[in-house]
Every structure is written in structure tokens, then in C-alpha cells.
Amino acid sequence: MAEITFYSNPQSRGLIVHWLLEELGVPYETQWIDYGEQMKGAEYLAINPMGKVPAIRHNSAVVTEAAAICIYLAVSYPEKGLIPSVGDPKLADFYRWMLFAAGPVEMAITAHSFGWEIAEERRGQLGFGNHEDTLAALEIAIADRSFICGDKFSAVDVYFGSSLQWGMLFGAIEKRASFEEYVNRLQARPAAQRSVKINEDRVKSLTN
Ligand SMILES: N[C@@H](CCC(=O)N[C@@H](CS)C(=O)NCC(=O)O)C(=O)O
To answer: Does ligand 1 have an atom closer than 6 angstroms to the CB of 7?
Structure first.
């Protein structure tokens, strides 16, 4: 039995974790969870009380939240080189931009997508400040480097890159040249392509 059980739906943020699992190349077993009854049923709520995917079980540990899963898996398999070592200053970039993507970027995308008007004087109270400042920081994170942690791809690129890709796809993040170059570089990775195919095949199998 694989030591990782991965709970996902092919049309979800589970794609982020799926990509990371393919990058790691460790055995995992996927349990597809349908939206609705199954995701909100007692059995799955015992895994994630939010009734949302993705989630993983790794031996006896359960992890939810895509960003937390990315960090957890990268830390759990250090030999795969998907997180800088302790003592390497690049580890600061790893944590900093992972949580920036999970917090302020996610919030900026949500606010934009839902058309939330934010009064100028309330911006200091908001973790993402405003949309423009968030995009400017995103641009700084990937300026003059191939990946967030420099020349070397890591798990933060999986999460950060997915946020950027989806934000642009859904029109919540404008398509700037640096964003597109970075995302194209990531999408060209065989593990990213494999994960997309697995999920597309799953969608096809459900519609046929
Ligand atoms: N903060 C969570 C969000 C997870 C999430 O919202 N997942 C959506 C799919 S992308 C979901 O499961 N929605 C089903 C529902 O809430 O009923 C994460 O980053 O993992």
C-alpha cells in the first residue's frame, strides 16, 4: 500500500498537489472525491472538516490546505530537493512566497473575482493591501530568476505558479510578460504535464 493517500477531485485545487506528487515521484494512491454528498459526508469530513479537497494522509498524519500539503511533502522528502535546506537563505524565499501566495494572493484574486470594492481607507487593515500592490510584489518575487528560490525549481513554484496561472486564466491577474514566462517555464515540466493529463483523463472518464 502506498504511504500517501491523496484525496482530490479532477476539477479542483487538487491539481496543485497532484503536480507536486508527480514531481516527487513517490508512490501515492488517489481517492477521487465527488463534489456534494461524498465531499460533505461524514467519512470525508473526518479527513477534512471543511469538506474540501485536496487533502492527504501520510502514514498516520492528515494534512489539508494545498499550501500546507506542498510544504509538508517537500519537508517530508528532503532527498527530492524540493525545499532549500535549513541554513540556506533561500529557505526564507520558500516560506515567504508560499504563504504570500496562500494568503494575500488568494485574497486579492477572490476580491477581484467577486468584485469586492475596498474603500481606500480600509486597505491598511487588509492583508493584501490592494490588488496593485499584490501584483507588484508578485513581480518582484520572480524578477531576474528562473524560479522563486533562484535557479532551482522547488515546491513553492508549484503553489505560487499555480496561483499565478489560475489567476491569469480566470482574468483576476493581468497577463504580464514576466508572469507568462514564468508560468510557461513551469507548464513545460513533465511532471506538470503528467498531472494535467491524469486529471483530464479522469474528467473524460466521468463524462463518457
Ligand atoms: N483553502 C483550501 C481551499 C480548498 C477548496 O476550496 N477546494 C474546493 C475545490 S478547488 C472545494 O473542495 N470545494 C468544495 C466545497 O467547498 O464544497 C486549499 O487551499 O486547499
So the answer is: no
